[in-house]
Amino acid sequence: MSDQMPNLQPQFLTVGEGEAAREIAMLVRPAQAGNNVPTLVWLSGYRSDMSGTKALELDGLAGEVGTACIRLDYSGHGLSGGSFRDGTISRWLEEALTVIRHVAPDRVILVGSSMGGWIALRLAQELARQEGPKPAGPKLEGMVLIAPAPDFTSELIEPNLTAKERKSLAERGYFEERSQYSPEPDIYTRALIEDGRKNRVLDGMIETGCPVHILQGMKDPDVPHAHAMKLVEHLPADDVVLTFIRDGDHRLSRPSDIALILGAVKGIIRTSMAG
């Protein structure tokens, strides 16, 4: 695939003003001339970045089909500036929205992993809200959500907090949890949890206005597969496909998982081109 991988250099975009300003890193693969396939947008999970396996595979697919691909690192992640502890869903959503507006594609397919699935659903709401005489964002052509974790702060973290974790949140403003994926512990702040409540999407009907394909491992220790079922219930107006991967974990990064993810993206591309 090397001939299709241009030497992409990160570009940096300042998001926010004053003390809230941070430099957001993005990798933007340009579309081949004359290509009108929707731009693919990668949205990483919590503590993941744009150079992970799935992100690279999506970029490779964009190269194969000749379309553009946008990847970014949220503040406090990867190559971006800003402190991880300042991170909230609202802040990371603002960064994703600003990057998409800056690159300004006409049409996009959002591909979100874990927390990136939550950000994708919030992006759909924000893009729909901005449509008026002059849309301030691209048309959403489809979504692929990989082990999506919408509302994970209120649905998966808050109900399971231990007394010790509650005490740490109250006294220190955060608690730590051992990570399966990194030697560094996962940090969950009070700001993240409080802001999560303001960004809930599972509290009513979600209208994305586009086809949605959800892929969920049934052996996922982080996001139970019942969470994916719950999400489907909140998408009654959309064309939703839910694929369960019986032995799939949370990362879904094995070659067989990647093949299913890329197949889902290709399916959404086909639908968008036929429409």
UniProtKB/TrEMBL annotation:
InterPro entries, from UniProt?
A: AB_hydrolase_1, AB_hydrolase_fold, ABHD10_acyl-thioesterase
Q: Recorded E.C. number(s)?
A: 3.1.1.93, 3.1.2.22
Entry keyword Hydrolase: yes
UniProt keyword terms in alphabetical order: Hydrolase, Transit peptide
* Molecular function as annotated in GO: mycophenolic acid acyl-glucuronide esterase activity; palmitoyl-(protein) hydrolase activity
Name the enzyme group at the top EC level. hydrolase
Q: Give all residue intervals belonging to the AB hydrolase-1 domain.
A: 57-255
Q: Does the keyword Amino-acid biosynthesis apply?
A: no
Q: What does this protein do?
A: Acts as an acyl-protein thioesterase that hydrolyzes fatty acids from acylated residues in proteins. Regulates the mitochondrial S-depalmitoylation of the nucleophilic active site residue of peroxiredoxin-5/PRDX5, a key antioxidant protein, therefore modulating mitochondrial antioxidant ability. Also catalyzes the deglucuronidation of mycophenolic acid acyl-glucuronide, an active metabolite of the immunosuppressant drug mycophenolate.
- PANTHER family, A to Z: MYCOPHENOLIC ACID ACYL-GLUCURONIDE ESTERASE, MITOCHONDRIAL, PALMITOYL-PROTEIN THIOESTERASE ABHD10, MITOCHONDRIAL
Q: What is this protein called?
A: Palmitoyl-protein thioesterase ABHD10, mitochondrial
Q: Per the UniProt entry, what species is this protein from, by scientific name? A: Rhizobium lentis
